[in-house]
Write a structure and sequence with these properties.
13 helices; Glycosyltransferase; alpha+beta; 32% helix; 22 strands; 3 domains; Immunoglobulin-like; globular; binds zinc ion; 6-stranded mixed beta barrel; binds beta-L-arabinofuranose
C-alpha cells in the first residue's frame, strides 16, 4: 500500500493518510493530468535524464561507461525524483512497460553503490577521498534523501525491494558516519531528515530516526557556518521568522514536523507553528508561491512580495504542500489543507505546461511576455519534483484516525477505505474545482458507527451541507472540518454546497506594489489577465472598479477546459513605446476608455502566444 507519509504508528500524529491505491479518480480535471503525466511527462523526462548524462553518471560509476561526470553535483536527485514519480503512478495503475523502465533505472543506481553503502555519482571514483568533506554545499545528504524517498515509494507501490536495499545500506552508512559518536554533521540542503524518518517508519530501525534528530538538533551551532541562507543561524526550536533558501527551509520544516510526530517534542511544534504563521501571513503570494527573492532563492523580508521579480520556485511551492500535509497529519487542522489546496491549484500547477512537458522554475505574478516554460533546466530540480507531487496526489485526498474518515479534497472519484477492519466505499460526484456542489455517497458493509469529517474550505463562505436530503443545522464554519457522527449505512448521501462567487481580493497595504490593486479568485483558483484573451489593450493598463459585475463561463474548448471570468473595466493606455523613463502628468490627459476583459486561471497562463500577464489589476474604490 502506497501511503505518502505513513503515520500509522507515529505516536503524536492525529491522522494517517489513505493509500494511493484506495482512491480512483474519475474526474475531468486531475485524471487527464495524471494520464498525461504517465504518457508524456514521465517518458519525456526519462529521455532527458538520458540525454543530459544523468543516467550516464550512474553507468560511469558502475564501470559501464567512460568519460567525465556530467552536470551539477546534485543531478542524481533528479533520477531519484523520477523513480518516485513513476512509482506513485504504478501505485495508481500497474503498467508493465513503466515498471520495466523503472527496474532498468534501479539497476543502474544499484550498480553504482560503493561497497560500504555510499551512493553518489559525483563523489564515487576519482573523488572518493572527498566524500562528506563539504556537507554545506555538496548535496550528498540531499541526494541520499531523494534516493531513500524513491526507494520507499517503489517498495510500497510494487513490493520491489531492490532500491530499498540500496537505500537502507546507504542509510546505515549515514548512521555509522553521523550517528551517535560519529562526525558532527548538518545537511547544507535539508531533505534527508524527512526521508530518514520515513525509512524508520518503513523499517522500524530507530537509528534512522535518531540520526535525523541529530541532523535537526545540530543546526544553529555554526557547524556549517551559521548562515540564514542555510537556516543555520539559530537552533530550530528558537526559530520564529521563516528565512533563508526557501526549499531548504521548507524541507527542513517537513523533517521537523515528522520528528514531532514521532517524539511529541512541543518545542519543535511551537517553532513550526511560529514559522507557519510568519510565512502565511507575511511571506506567501496569493497563489501560495514562496521564496520571493531571486538572490539566494530565498524568503524576503516580511511583505517583500514583488510580482514581476517574484522568484517563487516551483519546488518551494511543492515543499510547502509537503510541509502542510505533515502539519495536518499531526494536528487535524483544516488551515493546513487550505494552504495545500491553494498551493496545488495555483503555485504548483503553474509549474507545468498543459502539454505536460514544459516547466516553470520561477513563477512571476506579472510579466511582459518574456518568461516562458522550458523543456528542462541545467538545474532541473523542479520538473521531476512536480512529477512526483502530482503522481502522488490521490494519496492526499483522505485520511483516517481510529473512528474518523477525513475528506480533504473534493474530486469526482471513488475510494475504498479501511476503518476498524471494515471497508467503506466513498463515491464523490462533483465538477470541482469549477463547481462547488459535491455529492458524497457512502457504501458500508452493514451498519457502521464512525465520524465523517468534511473539509469546509476557508474560502467557502455560505457553505451548506445536507444529509439524506435534510439540511444540517450545525454551524458550518469555513476553514474547519465539519463532523458528522452517526450510524452509517449504504446509500447515505451527503451533499455539500460550496458557493463559488468570484471574489475580489485586496492585499495587505504593507505589500506596497499591490496598493490599489485587486486579484480575482473563484473557489480555490487564482485568476490572471493574459494578453491573448484581451486584444485591444494592455492588461497592465486594466482598471477594474470595485463594483464591477463579474460573470463566469465554463469553456470546455479553452486551455483543456476552464471557467473564465468576464467583466467590463477601463484602461488608461500607457505609452509603452515612449523612451523616457519619466514624463509630465498631462493636465488634459486622455479619459479612461471602457473595455471588456477576460481572466483565466493563473495556472494556465503561458500556454499560448506570449504577451503581458498580471494577477493583480488596478482598481478604483466603489463609487469612483
Ligand atoms: O540545491 C538543489 C535545488 O536546486 C534546490 O532545492 C533548488 O532551490 C535549486 O537551487
Ligand atoms: Zn526547483
Amino acid at each position: 500500500m502506497t501511503i505518502v507519509v505513513d503515520t500509522s504508528k507515529s505516536p503524536h500524529a492525529r491522522l494517517t493518510p489513505v493509500s494511493l491505491e484506495a482512491v480512483r479518480l474519475q474526474d475531468k480535471f486531475w485524471l487527464p493530468r495524471l494520464e498525461k503525466l504517465r504518457n508524456i511527462t514521465i517518458p519525456s523526462q526519462y529521455e532527458l535524464l538520458e540525454s543530459t548524462g544523468r543516467l550516464f553518471n550512474f553507468r560511469r560509476v558502475a564501470g559501464k561507461a567512460r568519460g567525465d561526470f556530467k552536470g551539477l553535483v546534485f543531478n542524481d536527485s533528479d533520477v531519484y525524483k523520477w523513480v518516485e514519480a513513476a512509482s506513485f503512478l504504478l501505485a495508481g495503475g500497474f503498467d508493465k512497460s513503466l515498471y520495466d523502465l523503472v527496474g532498468k533505472v534501479v539497476d543502474e543506481i544499484a550498480l553504482a553503490q560503493d561497497e560500504d553503502g555510499y551512493v553518489n555519482t559525483f563523489f564515487s571514483l576519482e573523488r572518493k577521498n572527498q566524500r562528506w568533506t563539504n556537507l554545506r554545499d555538496m548535496h550528498e545528504l540531499y541526494c541520499a534523501g531523494h534516493l531513500i524517498q524513491a526507494a520507499i515509494a517503489l517498495f510500497r507501490a510494487t513490493g520491489n525491494s531492490r532500491l530499498l536495499e540500496v537505500a537502507t545500506r546507504f542509510a546505515d552508512h549515514i548512521v555509522k558516519t553521523f550517528g551517535p559518536g560519529g562526525r558532527l554533521g548538518v545537511p547544507g540542503h535539508p531533505e534527508v531528515e524527512m526521508a530518514l524518518i520515513e525509512l524508520y517508519r518503513e523499517t522500524g530501525n530507530k537509528s534512522y530516526l535518531d540520526v535525523a534528530k541529530i541532523f535537526i538538533d545540530n543546526r544553529g551551532k555554526g557547524i556549517i557556518g551559521g548562515s540564514q541562507y542555510h537556516i543555520d543561524h539559530k537552533p530550530f526550536r528558537e526559530l520564529s521568522e521563516i528565512v533563508g533558501h526557501a526549499v531548504r527551509a521548507l524541507y527542513l520544516n517537513c523533517g521537523a514536523a515528522d520528528l514531532y510526530m514521532e517524539t511529541g517534542d512541543l518545542e519543535l511544534w511551537n517553532a513550526l507553528n511560529r514559522l507557519w504563521d510568519n510565512m502565511v501571513n507575511r511571506k506567501m503570494y496569493v497563489t501560495g508561491g514562496l521564496g520571493s527573492r531571486h538572490d539566494g532563492e530565498a524568503f524576503g523580508f516580511d511583505y517583500e512580495l514583488p510580482n514581476v521579480q517574484a522568484y517563487s520556485e516551483t519546488c518551494a511551492a511543492i515543499a510547502s504542500f509537503m510541509w502542510n500535509w505533515r502539519m495536518f497529519l499531526a494536528s487535524g487542522e483544516a488551515k493546513y489543507v487550505d494552504i495545500m489546496e491553494l498551493t496545488l491549484y495555483n503555485a504548483i500547477l503553474a509549474g507545468i505546461s498543459l502539454n505536460g512537458k514544459e516547466y516553470f522554475y520561477v513563477n512571476p505574478l506579472a510579466d511582459r511576455g518574456k518568461h516562458r516554460r522550458q523543456a528542462w533546466f541545467e538545474c532541473a530540480c523542479c520538473p521531476p519534483n512536480i512529477a512526483r507531487l502530482l503522481a502522488g496526489l490521490p494519496g492526499y485526498f483522505y485520511a483516517v484516525s481510529k473512528n474518523e474518515v477525513w475528506i480533504n479534497f473534493y474530486c469526482e472519484s471513488t475510494a475504498e477505505i479501511e476503518l476498524k477492519n471494515r471497508s467503506i466505499k466513498i463515491i464523490q460526484r462533483t465538477g470541482y474545482p469549477w463547481e462547488g456542489d459535491v455529492t458524497i455517497t457512502l457504501h458500508t458493509d452493514g451498519e457502521q458507527d464512525f465520524i465523517v469529517k468534511l473539509r469546509i474550505p476557508g474560502w467557502s463562505n455560505g457553505a451548506s451541507v445536507s444529509l439524506n436530503g435534510a439540511e444540517l443545522e450545525t454551524d458550518i464554519r469555513p476553514g474547519t472540518y465539519l463532523e458528522i457522527n452517526r450510524t452509517w449505512k449504504t446509500g447515505d448521501t451527503i451533499k455539500i454546497s460550496l458557493p463559488m462567487p468570484v471574489r475580489k481580493l485586496v492585499c495587505n497595504p504593507n505589500v506596497y506594489e499591490n496598493l490599489g490593486r485587486i486579484a480575482l479568485m473563484r473557489g480555490p483558483i487564482v485568476y490572471c489577465f493574459e494578453a491573448v484573451d484581451n486584444p485591444g489593450f494592455d492588461v497592465w493598463d486594466l482598471i477594474i472598479p470595485g463594483e464591477s459585475i463579474l460573470e463566469t463561463e465554463y469553456r470546455p474548448d479553452l486551455l483543456d477546459g476552464v471557467v473564465i471570468i468576464k467583466g467590463t473595466g477601463y484602461v488608461m493606455d500607457s505609452k509603452w513605446s515612449e523612451e523616457s523613463l519619466y514624463n509630465e502628468l498631462e493636465s488634459k490627459g486622455e479619459k479612461p476608455r471602457k473595455v471588456d476583459f477576460t481572466a483565466i486561471p493563473y495556472y494556465a497562463w503561458c500556454n499560448r502566444k506570449p504577451g503581458p500577464m498580471t494577477v493583480w489589476a488596478r482598481t478604483v474604490p466603489f463609487g469612483t
